[in-house]
Amino acid sequence: MVPLPKRKKSKSRALQRLSHRALKAPPLDLCPQCHSPKLPHHACPTCGTYNGREVAKPKEAKKTA
Fold first, then answer.
1. What is the DSSP string of 13-31?
2. Annotated domain spans of the chain
3. How far apart are the C-alpha atoms of 21 and 29, rounded to whole Å?
4. d(C-alpha 9, C-alpha 27), whole Å
């Protein structure tokens, strides 16, 4: 036989278990070359550098009209 709880867990107690699941903003570093925010351990999307050297072509700004 499977053991069953003796009483129903209240809503507040059940939701306390989920309190740590909130979304958090990703950590951001500043690029040492252009000082724009970027993800740590990733190439900078603005200037395309990583660890002091250019590893990717920088993204161009979208032209409107």
1. HHHHTTGGG---PPP-EE-
2. 28-60
3. 24
4. 36
For residue 54, pLDDT over 80 is answered with: yes
Residue 6: which residues within 8 A CB-CB, separation 6 or more?
Answer: none
pTM of the model: 0.59
Percent of the chain with pLDDT over 90: 58
More confident residue, 29 or 56: 29
Which contacts qualify for 47-54: CB closer than 8 Å, 24 or more apart? none
Question: How far is the C-alpha of 12 from the C-alpha of 20, rounded, in Å?
Answer: 14
Q: Is the distance from CB of 44 to CB of 34 less than 8 angstroms?
A: yes
Question: Cβ atoms within 10 A of the Cβ of 38, count?
Answer: 21
